[in-house]
């Protein structure tokens, strides 16, 4: 809600007087902070008023937030302030074609934060510029949800190390050109968080941090419109507390949803966010963004206020940690995913649709849905980027829109049943060795667990699996954005079928694709005669070509119709309007496919495959071998 000029000025003067009062009590004045206040305060004021303007204390809460931000800026290390200035001058730094992401669990990949530090030389060998360490904060066992049930945002899980070690690791990564990414689980906390413990004890202040009700009246009213996320864990969205009250728990019983209608919660979580930024974190993965705002009579997902909240958090960062970026995690309808992608909201976003449709294309040998998605849903606002991946720590869900599938004559429900059957080896001739997650044999509904290598058939036919692994990665490495590797995939690591023997993992099949560091496979990575070496060499070649090709920077993608349902095609425009274009072609079939000369009528005769450095004449057409991909340097006529 935009206020009048007078209202804006009155609010500004009120907040500045609070800031001046604190400075009189010892908070240092700072011209850089004041400069950013002048620029960003009107936005913050408007967003905060939109969320909390119906409260009589909203302006006091806003003043406290600004003072809190100024104090955080005062505590921010000088080297991070230097980074802030560099990234304010180059806000699109993450659009570089040199960006390459890796993601891992600290304990499973390196045992500890010191183990991660020891792997920095390998990260540089691979070419990483972005390292996402999966949830590493204090979380109770066994009720940790893989670290997503946070009991302290300011303490590292002691099995992994300390906050001082994380701060030191962030600095060493930064010195080696690698940005640190961590999860910000801000929809909920563990029920063992100090705030939750105080709420459970009846403290009225902290009871207001959560959605707690004395009886079932309002929980029943909310649940009339809210879907169950994990019904096998608990029915509905609320659980009964020991004292008889009811608390909102969207996911697991031990994860209590925060109440962002309370500005005290916003300020408390903003403080946690700025604390992490001051430890040297570059990017926060904003977990479960679709669920953060609740409103009676709605599904309580993807509400407009969720976007306002993210923008308000972003505005706080612009004041006190301007180098920090947000990455959205929203595994929802593609139209809803796109709404979180904005320079003012989440500058980065996972691309779950591209990921799912890569696997769909591998199963069907038909790229129609993937080509449609690249045409319709790939290009996003200026100043933002996709994080593109073949797989993540999570399961694979078939997130394509039914209406998109229907345009191609595909029944979405039936197609998802086929894909589930294919990837858990219940379909004749399947190469995949996935494991079902949340399987319902009666309906055929499930999601898919498995490493890239196992889903590509490494246990069935290693040679073909290597080709599928590289083919799958050729898409996120060339479509634009930040390509992301789940570390271990680059050496063809297969499923860990012993996952169920680990305490707390027996009920969650996703641990099958979160195996421990495969030392023997990494030792073979430089031998191209091995499957590990073949995968590693193929990915390294893509990385080398990408970093040396300016046309692969940014996110802009232009259609290219191949007129062949087995062959995906798209263009990446050159750095200059009349310069060379990169034309990517990928054959998802098990047979050779020939594209006739007329397919390439818009280009000059000669092309060079950047990956093999081979020259070809487009006037002769192009033949792609089974599972082959080409990145052609072409010149438009």
From TrEMBL:
Which InterPro entries is this protein grouped with? Amylosucrase (IPR044077), GH (IPR017853), GH13_cat_dom (IPR006047), Glyco_hydro_b (IPR013780), O16G_dom_2 (IPR045857)
Arranged from A to Z, the UniProt key words for this protein are: Glycosyltransferase, Transferase
List the EC numbers from the record: 2.4.1.4
Keyword hit for Transferase: yes
Where would I find the Glycosyl hydrolase family 13 catalytic domain in this sequence?
A: 105-530
Into which EC class is this enzyme placed?
A: transferase
Query: Which CDD domains does UniProt cross-reference here?
Result: AmyAc_Amylosucrase
Q: Does the keyword Secreted apply?
A: no
**Coiled coil residues, start to end:** none
Q: Which Gene Ontology MF annotations are present?
A: amylosucrase activity
What is this protein identified as?
Answer: Amylosucrase
- Species: Pseudarthrobacter defluvii
